[in-house]
């Protein structure tokens, strides 16, 4: 089939999937007043593939068949592939006004990890997984699918693994092995974009041990599979005017609590089944790719923080004040640090069987940690530069009203020569970015998505070459 149009993508979502939003079953996600925003946001991916400005970046050609396909489905083999993928992710997020599209980014991160792990399992005498992963990858590529990833389990008591919990279903598990496949039960949480993708790949969320065989499972199913119930997140559930909410009126990502109520998975879609020793390997390999995706999609957001702070400083007439320049410098350095670490991660990649380039794990985790641990401080700086109007400003209705509009125009001006409307529009942008429900979403996304701060610190500790550093210290100290 090759590349799809946005219309073909939207049509494919009318497939009887079981989605719930605020207590009601959603008959058609594409026309739903809130989920429909997420669908239109995801269409950016398909529009970019047709846009001459992005086509070379977004589309690749199969040298054997001549078929065209989305770059996301290309297995990265070297630094150049990783940098182009990163550039595509950043460009599409820019088109999405700082919000990642994600319908192919996350799914292909999982596919890359499945290839690496299946290769290893083939070496251990189980070639069937490799064949299945390759076939599934080819299908998603050729049908230009959107693919979500459900890795995070609901987890119950975080101090325990799958065993010893109040009930056995806090981690998704196999409840039946049949001749034609497996039946799984459990719930994954925080699953981004599944309301509007064709497929979902399910991965284990952690390392497993003996006795965890039923929890060591990976597979993929279509979004409309019987027994799969998607309970959609509720944040930002009201109709917004783009004047007041220039980002979130048009851009949205949905998460779901994804319930697997005894879902049947045929064998050709099962990629791990009981291999406790490979579960952690798969979980971690996915994260190696996914954190690189994460830092790539953060770049437009960091640029927006620096850019909007600079613009509002000018409109308020304070751009040359010492403390403002200091804050703008911090914001610029924040953006540049993450950007530089992405390039370093791609340049220092490691090519792993079957020939897939994994971004450097240390630089990727440091980039993600730098981003996540500084995000709230950066928001504080932008809010500081802007002023309290971020939350006390007028509604779009008052701005347009004949009774109140002229007063607002007169009194909400800033620096001479700057139209009041420009100042108000910039305030609204910063308010949406940092002080709206969307701003809160971005803050939690910064801390938790793609793993919490501790997860990134752990990887940094593991990957850093302490031995060489300590040997150097001993040498200079004169210790043999
Ligand atoms: C907007 C958003 C989108 C997301 N999208 C996806 C997605 O598409 N697919 C997906 O699979 N996941 C997704 N995630 C999930 C994300 O990876 C998790 O939120 C993250 O891993 C943290 O898990 P948690 O939310 O369950 O928090 P918890 O694990 O409960 O973490 C809360 C705190 O507890 C600490 N903690 C947890 N366990 C322990 C322990 N054993 N010992 C000590 N401390 C512990 C953590 O370090 C953290 O400080 C998304 C999350 C967000 C916020």
Write the layout of secondary structure elements.
Blueprint: H1 6-12, E1 18-21, E2 24-26, H2 35-50, H3 55-58, E3 59-61, E4 68-70, H4 79-95, H5 105-123, H6 128-143, E5 147-150, E6 173-177, E7 181-192, E8 199-202, E9 217-222, E10 228-232, E11 255-266, E12 270-273, H7 276-316, H8 322-347, E13 350-352, E14 356-358, H9 361-386, H10 389-392, H11 396-400, H12 405-411, H13 420-434, H14 437-448, H15 453-463, H16 466-476
This protein binds flavin-adenine dinucleotide.
Describe the 3D structure.
Helix content is 49%, strand content 15%. It is built from 16 helices and 14 strands. The chain is an alpha+beta fold and 480 residues long. The protein folds into 2 domains: 6-279, Butyryl-CoA Dehydrogenase, subunit A, domain 2 (Beta Barrel); 284-476, Butyryl-CoA Dehydrogenase, subunit A, domain 3, CATH 1.20.140.10. The structure holds flavin-adenine dinucleotide (FAD). The site of flavin-adenine dinucleotide has 20 residues, from strand 5, strand 7 and helix 14.
What's the gist of this structure?
The protein is an alpha+beta fold and 480 residues long. It has helices at residues 6-12, 35-50, 55-58, 79-95, 105-123, 128-143, 276-316, 322-347, 361-386, 389-392, 396-400, 405-411, 420-434, 437-448, 453-463, 466-476; strands at residues 18-21, 24-26, 59-61, 68-70, 147-150, 173-177, 181-192, 199-202, 217-222, 228-232, 255-266, 270-273, 350-352, 356-358. It folds into two domains: 6-279, Beta Barrel (Butyryl-CoA Dehydrogenase, subunit A, domain 2); 284-476, Butyryl-CoA Dehydrogenase, subunit A, domain 3 (Up-down Bundle), CATH 1.20.140.
